[in-house]
Structure formats: structure tokens, C-alpha cells
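Notes from the 1:1 (GR / supervisor)

We went over the backlog. Supervisor wanted to see one worked example end to end before approving the batch request, so GR pasted a single chain during the call. The sequence is below; no edits were made to it. Supervisor asked that the structure be written out right there so they could see what the output format looks like.
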Amino acid sequence: MPAAPSPQFPIQDFDPQEGLKLQTGGQLPHWRQNGATYFVTWRTADSLPKKRVEQWVSERTAWLRSHPEPWDHATVEEYYRLFPDRWEKWLDESEGEALLARPDLREIVENVLVHDDGTNYRLHEFIVMPNHVHVLVTPLDEHPLSDILQEWKLISAHRINEVLNRRGAFWQKESFDHIVRNAESAERFARYIQRNA
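Structure output shown during the call:
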């Protein structure tokens, strides 16, 4: 397969010298840095069985305790193989109702994602899968990623529930996000999203 073209956007490299903000409140930590680009994944509420999620969280917590940072390359590879890669594999099994396979519901999410592109954020790549969404995004100005995600999820859930004549949670509250370290990392995430298209 030929290499995907480089993403058509300037990316500010992650700066380890600049301060990072840690946001907590869910089961996962979320690191923030001004001007950063993020690879974000979130999923429908029914996409993974609760027992599987609890097992994953427990295993990850134990692994992180026994592997303090800084990590060498082999440790980073092990972490990604055991946790983010395994999570993505589970999501790709499309458990649950997989309602976003419906073109009308997928289009609702896509329209919400592109609505404020160029105003509140720069949307570089995205894909709506049957039970989850991947986005490569750079928040602009004073628009925190958490606010952007909340708006995407709130508006799309409301519209989807209207179409389905339902109430209740459509999205899982938690999301996964990674700060994109550099242009090479951005290209890797962009290729991953493009492969899922």
C-alpha cells in the first residue's frame, strides 16, 4: 500500500518543556497542552461489555504502577500493544447495536464534527465507525478539547435519540485522547484513520 500523503496542516510539536495540564474526573487521565493536536476516540454506550472494560482498566492500572516513566522504546511498544491497540481491536469487533453503520445516523455525527471546523478547532481527519469515532483535531484559541468533545457528543446524541425516538445515554462518557507528538506521529494517526475509511 502506498504511503498516505502528509496531513495538510501545520502541527505544533509537543513540547516536553512546556507545562502539561492533567484533567481527571473519569477513569482515565487526560493530558492537555496549549496548541497541541490530539488523536481522540470515543464510543457508543453499548460498544463494549462492562466486564471487559473493567478488566482492561484494572490491568492497565496494575501495569502503569509496575512501569514508572520514563519509558524506553520497548516499554512504549508494550504499552500500546497491551492497551490502546487491544482496545481498538475490541471496538473494531463492532459489538452492541452498531447504530452508526446506518448512513443517516453516521451523517448526523459527521455534520456535527465539521460544523465548527476552522472556528473552534481545526479538524484534520475523522472517521465514524459503526460504534465509535476517531478524530485528529487541533483546538483553536481558547476552546478546550474537553468542551469541544462535550459539544460533539451532546449535540449528536440529542439528534440521534430524536431520530431513534429514544432517551438516555448514546455515547460512553469517557474518551481516549493522545497528544500528537510531532509530524511523524500525526501522519501515523492520519494513516490509521484513512485505513478505516
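Supervisor's comment: Residues 1-7 have pLDDT under 50 and may be disordered.
Batch request approved.
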